[in-house]
Amino acid sequence: MVEYNAPIRDYEFLYNEVLDAIPTAQRLGFVDFDAEFLSMLMEGWAEHTTEVWLPINQLGDIEGLKFEDGTIKMPQEFKDAYREGIEGGWMSTSCKPEHGGMGVPVFFQSVTWAEFGTAANMAMSVLPALSVGVYEVLTEHGDQELIDYFATNLASGEWSGTMCLTEPHAGTDLGIITTKAEPQEDGTYRVSGTKTFITYGEHDMTDNIVHLVLAKTPGAPESTKGITLFLVPKFLPAEWESGGVEALSQELMATHNGVTCSGSEEKMGLHASPTCVMNFDESIGWRVGELHEGMSLMFQMMNRERVATGMMGIGLAEIAYQNALAWARERRQGRDLKGMQDPNERADNILVHPDVRRMLLEAKVNNEGCRALAAWTGLLLDQMSSEDPEEAEYANALISLFTPIVKAHFTDLGCETASTCMQVMGGAGYCSEFGVEQFYRDVRISRIWEGTNGIQALDLTGRKITQNMGKNLRHLMWPLTEFIEENRDIPEMSEFNKPLHQGVRGLQHLTLLLIAEGQANPHFLAAGATDYCRYFGNILLAYMWARMARVALESVGDPFYDAKIASARFFFKRIFPETVGLAAKIQAGHKPMMEYPEAMM
Amino acid sequence: MVEYNAPIRDYEFLYNEVLDAIPTAQRLGFVDFDAEFLSMLMEGWAEHTTEVWLPINQLGDIEGLKFEDGTIKMPQEFKDAYREGIEGGWMSTSCKPEHGGMGVPVFFQSVTWAEFGTAANMAMSVLPALSVGVYEVLTEHGDQELIDYFATNLASGEWSGTMCLTEPHAGTDLGIITTKAEPQEDGTYRVSGTKTFITYGEHDMTDNIVHLVLAKTPGAPESTKGITLFLVPKFLPAEWESGGVEALSQELMATHNGVTCSGSEEKMGLHASPTCVMNFDESIGWRVGELHEGMSLMFQMMNRERVATGMMGIGLAEIAYQNALAWARERRQGRDLKGMQDPNERADNILVHPDVRRMLLEAKVNNEGCRALAAWTGLLLDQMSSEDPEEAEYANALISLFTPIVKAHFTDLGCETASTCMQVMGGAGYCSEFGVEQFYRDVRISRIWEGTNGIQALDLTGRKITQNMGKNLRHLMWPLTEFIEENRDIPEMSEFNKPLHQGVRGLQHLTLLLIAEGQANPHFLAAGATDYCRYFGNILLAYMWARMARVALESVGDPFYDAKIASARFFFKRIFPETVGLAAKIQAGHKPMMEYPEAMM
Predict the structure, then answer these.
(1) Which residues in A lie closer than 8 A to residue B353 (C-beta atoms)?
(2) Measured between CB atoms, which of A353, A426, A526 is closest to B353?
(3) Closest CA to B515 of B461, B454, B478
(4) Contacts of residue A351 in chain B, CB cutoff 8 Å?
(5) Nearest CA in chain B to A598
(6) Which residue has the higher pLDDT, B170 or B90?
(7) ipTM score for this prediction
């Protein structure tokens, strides 16, 4: 029943007309990468996800995984689909050609790949996304022999990866983990401890699972400063006896490396994505990166996964929107309040009702605004690796700011949109048959994992804003202010440019307030963090809508561009005004929370 | 794992200190009803729901109902619990003593009973709530012989009731239903048609099911003006041959009355509440009320069910809050930003974090505000039957306004609160073990059924505001304006009274705008309806918080009352400011939606 049309046209507009992605990619070294190839890539991936992943998404929800005797069995259909993806080379688009990857820019993998993949089958998409994250940390920070041994199979998807951070008592607060890593004479470590909420910690889709595990070595400093990162495979190389893995074959031992799974959580959604309790019992591991520098390495992976999680918000909101719209186009209830539209039918189509349109347009316009910001974020991820230090600094600064916003605001909106789309469909939306209720359940985890959205807001407000003496924000404000200035005298732009300008002034005011008050009392800053993050998200979406409107105004009369202008208008009139209320809440400070008598909560 | 403490103390505060419910009830004829009896009643019901209903709530979710060969089998535990409720007399508290009911005021049944019941077991609570609704329509509008035959068993819960409105093509739009009722010579009707989304349309908890069915008689006018209401039992009286049911025994035929169930929807939540497709095939029915007046009778029941649905929002939000708070009190992550609180522990309790408190207080303060408005609404339901015509008119006017707000705003907030509480618990909130994810799924239907919240908003904006030349609103504005005036010079009240005053002025302005613009273009009014309904909801909650603060200020120093003042403060500082953004959206009118190119949606 569920339908999905991957938004290829929208990405072409963004990459080619709004962002000039191709010249940037070429300048960054992707010399053969052009618009035609990008479109082909998007079409190929859209076809794969729509024809291979989407048809088994509901089956994954209903059938789910089976946990039996320490092993997790995935539905056969998932195994077949995953295999097909490996054969098509779809699991490794951004991995290096030397490891068998496609070697295309990061923006394709981290944004477009992620959106189509999560929309079609969120549970499935998580597995390759994690593997690519492990691949990146490994290839950037691992010893060459580890890279040589593990990278190719991670890139192809033959082996998969995990992030092992959380412990039963330590989720947000990784400083208090107790997993231990004992150094051995052969240079390896014996890793022991229990990790929880490990996505795809155990499964039967790949021959090996490569865990990146945070652990503490003996005598390591307290807090996150004493954490080191280890690579711990489920199965060791068959020929391994001690020390490294240099020149060993890819054949694996038959018995596992002390890595066991003692359970998978029963959860509200994402039933085909295992959420494991993992036990490491003197498991052999190799250090990745320096001693006590595990957190920064893990954060590098985590930051990429945060963008990936933000894309889940868009992906599920988009497929929910498409199905709610398809429903609305067929459904007839009531009459247009201005007079019946279809006298030959028993009722008019529900699109005649302003409130139905409001819901659908909130969904559509937020999806498209987030997609625009995501596309820009993807391009900045590529620019971070620029050889031009100014470009790299600029990209790093913006990625620092955008990562928590992409994670938190996109997933907040994704959950709200899934709910709005369910509402459009009424009772049918609540029934399993129509698919939207699965999206509503699945997408909800995105507000929680990779750091709850409250943590994202604190990261933005308490760290990213003040970092480097406020340089991150200055890197944003320069082009933003310039854009506003450039458009000041263009009459067609004023309906977008004026509220944007006002919003940016508000953002500057609120930022100064939070920093000033936060110095005296950090509770003030923390109390406003969530509302500030949402305010900031709205400003970035406003900027993207103004930029898109500017481009679209060049092609008035073409339905695609006219719709973009109408969407921009809807955004500024019907979504952006929430910033006024957010500002008032931020200004209210911490006292309403912190002076509340705790015993009476 | 799930815990629940029914908020008895809060209701005592509301009924006894804020609303003077007891003198009102006594004046209305409940002469023996006093505060002590009310407390006993609340304690008894709290005990029953907590000890009998709550322990099987998760079982109901997991095991659900079984649809087999046209019958629905409920879990045995549900049947036992329901039976226990009948024996305790809990299914009929507001029904008349002459039918075996307790005969207590409506406010207990429709508010307190509903909250505790839905919190403990929403799926179970729906059944008696529907039966009482059928009982009320029957006893007020049915022929005496129908009352004599059906009322007692409906009141006790031995038989249950349903509302059969929706058809596959007609949910919101009942004017286009096709179910037919053919009059017979013996005064009965033969009812034929298919109804969908019929809650408890079929089940094995009671011996008989009494359906109230909307149908059209031959030659009836088009639209809702041609709809008549029929009582159609699943089983006819054993002795019935034709005509009425006068003096027949309660023994039932062994074969059904042409009433069959052809399926139950698979849905996201409420797994133990059957959602049936019901077929009536020349089923014998009796008319209830006059020909072609079915809609107004059904609306009477519907309006009560709308209040009941609003209570589901509070009930599930309350139990979600209590469990999130209990989790937060145990969970230790991170340190107080102002310096660690518990140096002997690995981490501080998460209540030191302003954002965690923000989430919990949003939940708590919205729950308590809604409960206060609900308690007032309950009392007004009793006052509607006052013999004093002025009191009845006043109560009717306010109930007209409050019903859509209680339904829409409470359930919107209920869904948001369940989500917020899940967020407090992080990954645990998403896992089934902790219960909150069930509340999140279960409560979501409340925004859809008994008329979607969009329909509620249109009812408020397009009908209730302008009805009787705006009299409904004047009945609210008089006491509201008087309250603001009374409190103007009380310094301790100014932090509540001033924003309330400002909000009320905003409401008046927006109301005039919608009426004025709506006369020229009804799309303007419809476009702002949802935001207006939420704005109005906030005003009513603001009024309740100001009233509660006024009472609490008399007892400063007592922790219960100090917390009420702190809650009122939180409401005005951290929740009420959303009204500013809502006002801007309403003022934006219909063009952003209605001028959007439909083909490009």
Answers:
(1) 454, 526
(2) A526
(3) B461
(4) 598, 601
(5) B351
(6) B90
(7) 0.97
Contact B347 A176 (CB under 8 A): yes
CA dist A3 and A434 (Å) reads: 10
Q: What's the rounded mean pLDDT across residues B155-164?
A: 97
Among candidate residues B593, B453, B597, B456, the one with its CA nearest the CA of residue B524: B593
DSSP secondary structure letter of residue A590? S
Q: Say if CB A226 and CB A214 are below 8 A apart.
A: no
**Is residue A584 predicted with pLDDT exceeding 90?**
yes
E-strand spans in A95-220?
A: 159-164, 180-183, 189-199, 208-216
pLDDT given at position A123: 98
Residue A301 has pLDDT above 90, yes or no: no
Which residues on chain A are in Cβ contact (under 8 Å) with B266? 431-433
Tokens 């013999």 -> residue: B387
Q: Which two tokens stand for residue A68?
A: 């039996």
Å between B244 CA and nearest CA of chain A:
36
Q: Tell me what pLDDT residue A18 has.
A: 98
Asked whether the beta carbons of residue B333 and residue A172 sit closer than 8 angstroms, the reply is: yes
Kindly report the pTM of this predicted structure: 0.97
A399/chain B closest Cα distance in angstroms: 24
Of A318, A362, A450, A517, which residue is the catalytic one?
A450
pLDDT in tens, A392-421: 999 999 999 999 999 999 999 999 999 999
DSSP SS3 for B190: strand
The Cα–Cα gap between A215 and A278 comes to 13
- A426 to B432: CB separation less than 8 angstroms, yes or no: no
| Contact partners, residue B479, CB within 8 Å, separation at least 6 | none
B5, B122, B353: best to mutate for the A interface, most A CBs within 10 A: B353
**What value does the mean pLDDT of chain B take?**
96
A280 by DSSP, 3-state: which? strand
Residues of B in contact with A347 (CB under 8 A): 173, 175-176
Q: How far apart are CA A353 and CA A333, in angstroms?
A: 9
pLDDT tens across A212-247, in order? 999 999 999 988 999 999 999 999 999 999 999 999
Which residues in chain A touch residue B573, judged by CB atoms under 8 angstroms apart? 585, 588, 591-592
Searching chain B, which residue's CA lies closest to the CA of residue A166? B427
Contacts B448 to A, Cβ<8 Å: 422-423, 426-427, 429-430
DSSP state of A450: S
DSSP state of B192: E
| Min Cα–Cα distance to chain B from A324, Å | 11
**pLDDT tens track for B533-549:** 999 999 999 999 999 99
DSSP annotation of B230 = E
Flag whether pLDDT at A376 surpasses 90: yes
What ranges in B488-521 are assigned the alpha helix state H?
494-520
Best residue in B59, B421, B423 for a mutation probing chain A (most A CBs within 10 Å): B423
Cα–Cα distances (Å) from B594 to A484, B523, B597, in that order, read: 29, 8, 8
Of A337, A444, A559, the CB nearest to B526: A337
pLDDT in tens, A502-528: 999 999 999 999 999 999 999 999 999
Q: Which amino acid would we find at residue A48?
A: H
On the question of pLDDT at A1 being above 90, the answer is: no
Cα–Cα distances in Å, from A514 out to A400, A407, A475, A511, A525? 18, 21, 19, 5, 5
Amino acid letter at B387?
Answer: E
Q: Which residues of B are catalytically annotated? A: 450
**pLDDT band for position B294 (cuts 50, 70, 90):** very high
